[in-house]
């Protein structure tokens, strides 16, 4: 099995240029995930206000989620290189402006404005990298392997980004994380912009070609992942609160690390298998497993039980993401693929914002068990939306789909 996995993932990087765009994408995504926590460290240290720090971080994250699909649509029409170049300059300038505003003790509204601009000009790098993989391997079994790899990369960054920011703040200065994120974002985005050989070709859409959001099943897919983003964020914050209630707050980090690590391992395993069932059927299965995993958090009575819950939930996270990106790569026309992929990450971002805003108040008023129950309800909503997504896709085959779905149960 190990040799088979090595062979499959090795085939991905045998294609010219794939290592270069993967490294560039990793750097830029690392910068994005470092930014939210870096803003909190930097602003709270400079102003003494965690409220302002949280608002600035939320402004960045929400602007990123809302602006991403708009820029991705431009990228589909004009090419990654032509759009990334000015975006990279604008993003570097806005990040530098944010640093200057905090150092100069500028008014709170200006901090929020520049933070919003930083998020709005940060391209959806994960979608751009996935679009390159889809351009190279569309219609090939290796596309699922590539999408699995991207989910593993995402989980790896989720583990390493907070550790990196914390160490920079502790051993250098509270501003070090923001400075490092600026450099990584500029280097990664600029490098990706210069790599023209592997970028998907620009495709002018038909005059009446709208957004892929209105494709059959797509709105429900967005709803599915908004609910998943909210559920997972409530689980994360609830885990920190639960650990504090049980006198073991330091163990919240290891619990969340187990969740991320299990997700990464399951993603590698998922990508090494040759699936014959349609991705929407796999989505229903993985979302159901995700929802089942949240129930273990509801039932947790001790911090040690949380480790088991994190292990079980983690097994479903990456496969759920991979199935969804596979659906988008199959149903969205290639001329709109980057926008389609970005809508999914934006849905997750909006769910994360909603979950972050709600979870703290829920924990304060009703406790962690109620918070975990709400997360489980969100996961249940994701199941219903996912099942409806699968049904609509079966009734309305995607453009370019050449064969009907295979019978249920036929998978390797």
Q: What are its keywords?
A:
mainly alpha; Growth Hormone, Chain: A; disordered C terminus; 79% helix; single chain; 412 residues
Strand content: under 5%
Total E-strand runs:
0
The geometry reads as globular
Distance between the first and last residues' Cα: 14 Å
The computed structural class is: mainly alpha
Provide the residue-averaged pLDDT. Answer: 85
**Any idea of the CATH class of the largest domain?**
Mainly Alpha
Total discrete domains:
2
Order of helices and strands: HHHHHHHHHHHHHH
Q: Give me the CATH fold name of the largest domain.
A: Growth Hormone, Chain: A
Q: Which runs of at least 5 residues are low in confidence (pLDDT < 50)? A: 398-412
The residue fraction in helices comes out at over 70%
CATH superfamily of the largest domain, called what? MFS general substrate transporter like domains
What integer value in Å does the Rg equal? 21 Å
Description:
The protein is mostly helical and 412 residues long. It folds into two domains: 17-202, Up-down Bundle (Growth Hormone, Chain: A); 211-412, MFS general substrate transporter like domains (Growth Hormone, Chain: A). It has 14 helices and no strands.
How is the topology of this model organized?
Layout: H1 2-14, H2 18-47, H3 50-78, H4 80-103, H5 108-120, H6 125-137, H7 142-171, H8 176-194, H9 218-245, H10 252-271, H11 279-299, H12 303-331, H13 337-366, H14 368-395
Helix pairs in contact: 1-7, 2-3, 2-6, 2-7, 2-8, 3-4, 3-5, 3-13, 4-5, 4-8, 6-7, 6-13, 7-10, 7-12, 9-10, 9-12, 9-13, 9-14, 10-12, 11-12, 11-14, 12-13, 13-14
